[in-house]
Amino acid sequence: MKVMIRRSPEGLSAYVPKKDLEEPIVEFEKESLWGGSVLLRNGWRLLLPDLPDDTRLPITVEARRLLD
């Protein structure tokens, strides 16, 4: 699914256009954000693509939702 990752005053957030959902990112699997999973405040876990650490935000990426 397409997900836009952006920086907000509260920190990083993820926006899913198809669901009209924007949630803060509350947990990172990897410190660099890219190439691991992130946990959204609503409980969704998303697997982000492996991108360089210096990737500029905001950016739209193809992410995969992981089910627990």
TrEMBL record:
It comes from the Bacteria. Signal peptide: none annotated. Keywords: Plasmid. Gene3D superfamilies: NifT/FixU-like (2.40.50.240). Transmembrane segments: none annotated. InterPro entries: NifT (IPR009727), NifT/FixU_barrel-like_dom_sf (IPR024044). One of its GO terms (biological process) is nitrogen fixation. This is Protein fixU. The gene is fixU.
